[in-house]
Amino acid sequence: MSDAPRAAELRELLRRHNHAYHVLDQPTVDDATYDLLLRELQSLEEADPALRTADSPTQRVGAAASTAFAEIAHLQPMLSLANARDIDELVAFHERVVRLLAAAGIDEPPTYVTEAKIDGLAISLLYRDGVFERGATRGNGEVGEDVTANLRTVRTLPLSFGDPQAPTLVEVRGEIYIPRAAFDRMNDERAAHGLPVYMNPRNTAAGSLRQIDPRQTATRPLALWCYAVGVLDGVAFASHHEALAWLGARGLPINPLTAVHRSIESVVAECARIGELRPSLPYDIDGVVVKVDAIAMQQALGSVGRDPRWAVAFKFPATTRTTRLLDIRVNVGRTGALNPYAVLEAVEVGGVTVRMATLHNEEDIHRKDVRVGDTVIVQRAGDVIPQVVGPVLDLRPDGAVPFAMPERCPACSEPIVKPDGEVQHRCLNLRCPSRGLELLRHFVSRGALDIEGVGDKLVARLFELGLIARPSDLYRITQEQLEGLDGFKERSAANAVASIAASRGRPFGRVLFGLGIPHVGEVIAQAVARHFGTVDRLAAASAQEVADVEGVGSVIAEAVVGWFADADNAALVADLVALGVNLELGADERLAVGHLTGTAFVITGTLSVPRAELEARIVAAGGKIAGSVSACTDYLVAGEAAGSKLAKATRLGVAVLDEAGIVQLLAASA
Ligand code: IVH
Question: Which of 72, 443, 461, 632 is the one with CA 20 to 30 A from 278?
Fold first, then answer.
């Protein structure tokens, strides 16, 4: 088959993306996808040069500039930065700096300034006699666009220095950006009005700054960080950090993630620290800029082409990509909630391969208007699970249809209902196999009964064979039944039966959690267990009495009472009790001395013990567990690979404990 049709298709796609990116500032795909398409076309043209047309996007870089704004020649070229993709490249940069300085007769070790690399749009601001006169985009580095009127609408941009001693001419360089929360609000509003969502805050900032009508720009939540001085008359600085301090003193916003370092080791540590902070920052950054501090050294180092040799950008992986939405599937959870999720063509986002993403509920899918077959924008911010931001409407295939929730449960074919006031669709059939299986999986899971050797797979097989339907059935499984299954020998079957039997003695709170009562998570289950002491007392309680438990609100209380009121659930509890499963508080738990009473904990990261176990021990000592860090948190327990919570705790000055620290605190008596 000839490659000509594919080449023509690629040319057309690239032409459209190019126009969208450069002229409309409304990119339709991310950079990596664009590069892939371009490379595919390049390789087709290399294999068959006859396919190379004069208008092929491989034959030129960039697109025609918008003609809406007057051109401004920069007084000094606006440089770009070479990248360091990893620590080795960062160290290589430092070694080159040291070598070049030595060659210039400077033996002193360089001091560096690190700054967050703001993911926005570079601009140049000219202040004459301390008054903002003119502002321009970077353009091609030599010539930019005059966006003065639009820049005046940026609230954090000072229109004057308020300094009678101001130098005649100062050129300030910085980055225009849109804070993340404001961007999300804009996209939510657009989606609600059926408008295409924006790809990312950076391009939206660029588009907003290049509005023809400044009144439009004024409605956009643009913000500014300044990071350099360009042309300057009448003042001289010995170092970059002095220049920044000088700008800051004149009201120009300087990003707080700016620091001076005396060694490359300290620079490396700062890159790691800023990388950890990244998910919790209120704006997007895509790396750390490392600059040689001494101006004399910068001059000695000079630049090659567009890149100064005295600075480098340590880049973080991209967190937004586009990919194809292959299917929308629906999963039935153990409480009967229907959870739609996206099946995606595998794509690497922020260093992780993403194949699935949650779609929350039907409303969310309609609000975003994502359809099977769409090219969608996928985002992964830090440790947050992947999200589908929205579709690339330009690339929607013909005939793509809006998603509809199934009218009948995909697992049991019973009708699906959507209770008033809820966004979730539910299968109400208590015997729905999917619900039953999910409940069984939950029951044996780590935070609940934690039955070793009985995992998801075995549970699914026993369920399919009709050997178990409810959690209590597990305790009736015999060694002989297991021996009849593939992969089981006498010994492993005996072990599995023994670990099922051993789970009967798990603490009441964990068994209660294992029952899968809607809204009752590990912590609530533990608190409820401690409050009521036995399952009989809990089953007899009113919603008001359940709501008396600390941390339990009326929604949870109603859910608990409703659950026990159901005859099937009551039968399950009776069955479990009859089989010897523990449903009351042990004497030791009741007597626990609460030396941590009133102390609030948040746990994050990976620990060597199950998180449920640690939480149970903290609660047993009187402590409280919260899901997110706030000023009310007393301790953050941070395991390996802790991310945004650690960053937030550090910012708020919350005490941080590692695993050894919490173990020690638990061991200490009141
Ligand atoms: S310094 C020679 N500092 O990154 C200095 N740039 O890849 C050139 N950027 O065009 C720029 N934050 O738009 C510098 N703290 C920072 C920055 C920063 C973001 C952008 C800027 C520049 C691009 C270079």
Answer: 632
Residue minimizing CA distance to atom 18 of ligand 1: 117
Instruction: Report the C-alpha gap between 643 and 649 in whole angstroms.
Output: 10
**CATH 3.30.470.30 residue spans of the chain:** 83-315
Per CATH, the number for 83-315 is 3.30.470.30
pLDDT, average across residues 82-111: 95
Kindly tell me if the per-residue pLDDT of 255 is higher than 60: yes
Any atom of ligand 1 within 6 Å of the Cβ of 115: yes
Residue 389 carries which side chain, given as an amino acid letter?
A: V
**Mean pLDDT confidence for 500-526:** 93
Q: Which residues belong to CATH 2.40.50.140 in the chain?
A: 320-417
The per-residue DSSP string of 495-528 comes to HHHHHHHHGGGS-HHHHHHHTT-TT--HHHHHHH
Higher pLDDT, 188 or 670: 188
Q: Which residues pair with 174 in a beta bridge?
A: 123, 226
> Which atom of ligand 1 is least distant from the CA of 255?
15
Ligand 1 centroid to 227 CA: how many Å?
8
pLDDT, position 669: 55
List residues with catalytic annotation: 117
Ligand 1 touching residue 277 (CB < 6 A): no
CA 81 to ligand 1 center in whole angstroms: 7
pLDDT in tens, 51-68: 888 778 776 643 344 567
Architecture of the domain delimited by 591-667? 3-Layer(aba) Sandwich (3.40)
Where do the CATH 3.40.50.10190 domains begin and end in the chain? 591-667
Residue 267's SS3 state is helix
Q: Is 354 in the pocket of ligand 1 (CB under 6 A)?
A: no
pLDDT of 554 strictly over 50: yes
- The CATH classification number of 433-588 equals 1.10.150.20
**How many of the other CB atoms lie within 10 Å of CB of 483?**
15
Element (H, E) at 620: helix 611-620
pTM exceeds 0.70: no
The reply to whether ligand 1 has any atom less than 6 angstroms from the CB of 289 is: yes
Query: Ligand 1: does its nearest atom lie under 6 Å from the Cβ of 286?
Result: no
Task: State the amino acid at position 542 in one-letter form.
Answer: S
Q: How far is the CA of 667 from the centre of ligand 1 (A)?
A: 50
Q: Is the CB of 117 under 6 A from ligand 1?
A: yes
Contact 428, 414 (CB under 8 A): yes
329-353 exposure pattern, b = at least 16 Cβ within 10 A, e = fewer: ebebbbbbbbebbbebeebebbeee
Report CA(129)–ligand 1 centroid distance (Å): 26
Please give the CATH topology (third level) of the domain spanning 320-417. OB fold (Dihydrolipoamide Acetyltransferase, E2P) (2.40.50)
Distance 565 CA to ligand 1 centre (A): 63
Confidence bin at 47 (pLDDT 50/70/90): confident
CA 238 to chain centre: 40
Domain with CATH 1.10.287.610 in the chain: 4-60
β-pairing, 320-332 vs 375-379, is antiparallel
22 pLDDT above the threshold of 70: no
Task: Decide which of 1.10.287.610, 1.10.3720.10, 3.10.20.30, 1.20.1250.20 is the CATH code for 4-60.
Answer: 1.10.287.610
Task: Give the per-residue pLDDT at 61.
Answer: 43
Provide CATH 1.10.150.20 ranges for the chain: 433-588
Mutate which of 78, 80, 274 to test ligand 1's pocket (most atoms within 8 Å of Cβ)?
Answer: 80
Determine the pLDDT at residue 128. 94
Q: Convert the pLDDT of each residue in 262-280 to its tens digit.
A: 999 999 999 999 998 988 8
